[in-house]
Amino acid sequence: MESGRLLPDIEDEDGRPFWQAASRGELVVQSCGACRQLRFPPRPMCPRCQSIDQVWVKVSGRGKIWSWVLAHPPLLPAYAELAPYPVVVVSLEEDPSLRMVGNLVARPGGAINEVSADTIEIGANVSVVFEDVDGVAMPRWIISRT
After folding, report:
1. Which 8-state DSSP code applies to residue 107?
2. How far apart are CA 12 and CA 15, in angstroms?
3. Whole domain around residue 21: which residue ranges?
4. 76 with 6: CB under 8 angstroms?
5. What's the pLDDT band for 47 if we cut at 50, 70, 90?
6. Between the CA of residue 101 and those of 10, 86, 138, what are the distances in Å?
7. Global pTM?
8. 43 and 18 in a common domain
9. How sure is the predictor about 146, in pLDDT bands with cuts at 50, 70 and 90?
10. 20 to 30 A Cα–Cα from 74, which one of 6, 37, 57, 119?
11. Do 107 and 130 share a domain, yes or no?
């Protein structure tokens, strides 16, 4: 962690398949092997039926901005120099109750502080892109037309 950024534990037993898929440019979520309920974030047991059977399914990578915030100081030093920057909560197309948090970027590979806050709208369509951050493929979101 040379940059001082906080990064997820990509070797965590529950989340490892998510990060492996992200490294291939795919967005996946857990699905209960018994009742088929989709779930995110990953966890060992289905909250609906308590089954520990699980499979990982690829999702479209599309969703809508459900909420957002503009991050500004005080922040950890590695992030303070980038502030202010938007952080969005995205509800996924496959199941709007599935929500992911991430940065909103203007384009693939764009900086997390390129999007102006006055252009962000709740309900805007977004799609996932992946950005290598210190060796971790981080999901980020861009505004999309579809």
Report:
1. S
2. 5
3. 10-58
4. yes
5. very high
6. 16, 11, 11
7. 0.92
8. yes
9. low
10. 119
11. yes
